[in-house]
């Protein structure tokens, strides 16, 4: 239909990856696929509705022509019965047309909800990313905090690193040093 080749699809995929990023690209692809599905079903429903409407108009025109040519009084009971059946068929087509219209409206509502869900998911993802970036401390800051936490432990009267070295020595070596 649009005569799109593999190289064009690859180019679109690369541009989408660069613009949207690897996190949002699958969500965007699913959303676009949903829109395409909704549009195809909408087009099929509209096409069906138009064909039903045309059939209904032809049926009504045929009924009017028959009524004009021959008065209802001059028709035989079988023809009157078939005319009534045709009217009922026309009425059922009208109700079917209305049902199809209602289904198209519901499909449009679903497409709108899908779009709204996508928009809210994108906003949620953006706020989550921004909150994550804000809450992640700077690595240098984290290293400084670790040093601050380690300093009070060595100043509280606990053994110093030199004491730890003496504790690792053999008791015979300590006596020989004295």
TrEMBL record:
Compositional bias ranges of the Basic and acidic residues kind: 165-178
Subcellular localization(s) per the UniProt record: Cell membrane; Membrane
Residue stretches in coiled coil: 49-76
Residue ranges, annotated region (Disordered): 87-178
Chief location of this protein within or outside the cell: membrane
The keyword RNA-binding appears for this protein: no
Keywords linked to the UniProt accession: Cell membrane, Coiled coil, Membrane, Protein transport, Translocation, Transmembrane, Transmembrane helix, Transport
Membrane topology qualifier: Single-pass membrane protein
Role, per record: Part of the twin-arginine translocation (Tat) system that transports large folded proteins containing a characteristic twin-arginine motif in their signal peptide across membranes. Together with TatC, TatB is part of a receptor directly interacting with Tat signal peptides. TatB may form an oligomeric binding site that transiently accommodates folded Tat precursor proteins before their translocation.
Family indicated by similarity: Belongs to the TatB family.
Record text on subunit structure and interactions: The Tat system comprises two distinct complexes: a TatABC complex, containing multiple copies of TatA, TatB and TatC subunits, and a separate TatA complex, containing only TatA subunits. Substrates initially bind to the TatABC complex, which probably triggers association of the separate TatA complex to form the active translocon.
Protein name: Sec-independent protein translocase protein TatB
Species: Providencia manganoxydans
